[in-house]
Amino acid sequence: MIREVACPRCGRKTPFTPDNAWRPFCSERCKMIDLGAWAEERYRVPVESGPGDDTEDLKDRSQ
Ligand SMILES: [Zn+2]
């Protein structure tokens, strides 16, 4: 018998088994989104300047 839990992120039913590396999330994506959600609020990952540089905006905001 497979126990199922609802993914805390998207609510999709997902098997709560040792096979499911992302439990209780349904997928790596949902797990990463959930774990990253708080961090994203604090420090946005700076993007290295590249062609078509439009990251100045982000730098200015962090001051
Ligand atoms: Zn999910």
Arrangement of strands in the largest sheet: 1-2
Overall pLDDT metric: 80
Please describe the biggest sheet, giving its number of strands, its sense, and whether it closes into a barrel: 2 strands, antiparallel
> Per DSSP, what share of the residues sits in E-state strands of 2 or more residues?
5-15%
The top level CATH class name of the domain at 1-44: Alpha Beta
- Name the helicity range: 25-40%
- What small molecules are bound in this structure? zinc ion
Beta strand count: 2
Indicate the structural class: alpha+beta
Low-confidence stretches: none
Topology at a glance:
Blueprint: E1 4-6, E2 13-15, H1 28-42, H2 56-61
Antiparallel strand pairs: 1-2
The structure holds zinc ion.
Protein described:
By secondary structure, the chain is α+β, with helices and mostly antiparallel strands. It has a domain at 1-44: Erythroid Transcription Factor GATA-1, subunit A (Erythroid Transcription Factor GATA-1, Chain A), CATH 3.30.50. The chain has two helices and two strands, in the order ββαα. It has helices at residues 28-42, 56-61, and strands spanning 4-6, 13-15. A two-stranded antiparallel sheet has the order 1-2. A hairpin with a 6-residue loop joins strand 1 and strand 2.
